[in-house]
Amino acid sequence: MTKRTINIYGARQNNLKNISLKIPKHKIVVFTGVSGSGKSSLVFETIGAEAQRQINETQDSFVRNRLQHFGVTDVDKIENLNVPVIINQKPLTGNIRSTVATITDIYANLRLLFSRMGEPFVGYSNVFSFNHPNGMCPQCEGIGIEQTIDIYKILDLDKSLNEEGAIDFPTYQPTAWRWTRYADSGYFDLDKKLKDYSEKEWDLFLYAPQHKPLNPTSKWRKTALYEGLIPRFERNFLKGEAQERNRYRNKLERIITIKECSLCKGQRLNQKSLSCKINGKNIAECTALSVSSLLEFLESIKSEKFETVLHEIKNKLNNLNLVGLSYLNLNRVSNTLSGGESQRIKMVKHLGNSLVDLLYIFDEPSIGLHPKDLDNIIKIIQKIRDKGNSVLLVEHDPDLIRTADHVVDMGPLSGINGGEIIYQGTFEELKNSSGLTGAFFRRPNTYKKEPRMGNEWISIKNAHLFNLKNIDVDIPKNCLTVITGVAGSGKSTLISKVLPQQYPETKVVDQSAITASIRSNLL
Which InterPro entries match (predicted)? Predict the structure, then answer.
């Protein structure tokens, strides 16, 4: 048994057909094949999942119960696995308090720098945290925006609380569990229309703080508290868990008004924290810069005393620049990043470590990248390999496939017609293989000589979200239109954000994962 390869025997996960193979270590191994051919089933759900499961098994039961649970993989045996580092396309999760600066730890370094070098001295690093009471803006509580609910958009004043359904919102409709708090409170005549409520009833219905009702009905739970509709909405959907907001996002968007915080002007921090500056900029102004602009600003700071922390920040910024993210603003909220941007940020977090003999697994690292940025990604992957690590890539991009030390082509087709290994070996020999991937590399490039011309147009006017500079765009109807440009040029913002705002009937099919439970299937 050699330890220079990862040996897999009898893999049957999903559509894999009892395959066995040996994967060379300390190489860049690219898994190719049509979508659904079994690449992810082999790389992520067999190799990655089994490696992670075995790592988790080394922990004590207390820690294991708090880690992600992996079932036993449908494979006879896997030998010589390394510790896995799985970098997938799942968008970075987080709430409005999570930004590019916080998830890359650049903000922690900036807080340290301002607490030591900023003038005037206002306190230590927690004073510059918008998540800490000492630093956050007292009005918006550190989120930079003010959210108000227009409750009248879900109320029908001509209806009552009974079966007519005066509250038009999920979980507040007649017999729903949140509706019962109002119906069973004993405060309201259920047959009385909202427009006929007295001032006292209206105040109780909309604004009352949490309390135990005086004379509730017999259905009222003893431990339950009554709360007015507006504070309850704010608690559940503005200040509550992100999962609750995401579940009803479409409904909430039509009743919530968002505007910049009138006190901090979107900078999240209190005035004391914002008064501390370095070379004329406070910490919020620094994070409002793009990666490349902040690098330029830091280069202008000359200080031997603080060179260590300056070097740390510049090193992280250079790594973001290296993966083609120089355009990102550091205060960009993390859940607005695309899957490709999220994956590259995860990649950056591993560039600075000195760990070796790890098993890196990437899911299409080329996705969302302009060809000009792909060379840097290739160099990073090669750098990870050259440090003594093994790299597995699931990839479709021809240029990245060409860089492989070893190729595993899956197929021949997808689903039940896939799950087999069509070819293993070098890229040069792949071109002569019998699979669809080999056929692709043998054929010449072709282009459509007579494209369809449009007669009607979808007009986008004055697009100015994120980095869009008040642009007007006309898109032809009944045609296939491709929006191109370097990463960060505004493609996704224009099509996924601005277009649906101006044309609400737009259906957006993006890279977001389908959220469902274990009971959900394709049927």
Answer: ABC_transporter-like_ATP-bd, P-loop_NTPase
Read off the DSSP letter of residue 108: H
Domains of the chain by start residue, with CATH: 5-90+350-442 (3.40.50.300), 100-144+263-334 (1.20.1580.10), 148-259 (1.10.8), 450-523 (no CATH)
Phi and psi for 409 in degrees, rounded to 5? -100, 125
**pLDDT tens-place string over residues 443-469:** 888 888 888 988 999 999 999 988 899
One-letter-per-residue 3-state SS of 365-412:
CCCCCCHHHHHHHHHHHHHHHHCCCEEEEECCCHHHHHCCCEEEEEEC
Question: Which residue's entry shows tokens 């993966």?
Answer: 323
Cα–Cα distance measured from residue 300 to residue 21, given in angstroms and rounded to the nearest whole number: 54
Q: What is the pLDDT of residues 76-117, one digit of tens each?
A: 999 999 999 998 877 776 678 899 999 999 999 999 999 999
Query: Which residue has tokens 């699931």?
Result: 394
Report how far residue 325's alpha carbon sits from residue 320's, in angstroms, rounded to the nearest whole number.
Answer: 5
CB neighbourhood size of 444 (10 A): 4
Q: Please indicate, yes or no, whether the overall pTM of this predicted structure exceeds 0.90.
A: no
- Residue 251's CB is within 10 A of a number of other CB atoms, namely 15
Residue whose pair of structure tokens reads 């793009």 in the numeric block: 290
| CA neighbor of 373 nearest in space, from 321, 334, 338, 337 | 321
Closest CA to 394 of 86, 91, 69, 163: 86
CA distances from 179 to 226, 254, 261 (A): 11, 20, 32
Q: Where does residue 227 rank: exposed (0-12), middle (13-18), buried (19+ CB within 10 A)? A: buried
Cβ atoms of 273 and 138 within 8 Å: the answer is: no
ω into 365 cis (within 30 of 0): no
